[in-house]
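**User:** Everyone, produce a chain:

**Assistant:**
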Amino acid sequence: QVRLVESGGGLVQPGGSLRLSCAASGSIASRNAMGWYRQGPGKERDLVATMFSYGVTNYADAVKGRFTISRDNAKNTVYLQMNSLKPEDTAVYYCKYQALYVNDYSWGQGIQVTVSS
């Protein structure tokens, strides 16, 4: 079982920036994907960005050019740099770990990001 601990959320004004971090611990597969999903009020949980252990990234169209995902494999940590934040980015952001080729995944507890003036 992989445990995920998220940090870095909070309240920010429109146009501002935040960086989320997610540290993984436990039995981490060498080939994996780590990423971020978000769930706004009354909405489904949607993909924001994901990054595979070999470097490939994938972004939702709504965040392309504003958000950047990165990871430090030595620290088993994934980051989400969020710039030019908009009110519609307000959501609970969840970190997800997924081992490749096996049915093994974990979710973080979620962290609130609020974009408001």
The chain is about 0% helix and 55% strand. The first strand starts at residue 2 and ends at 7.
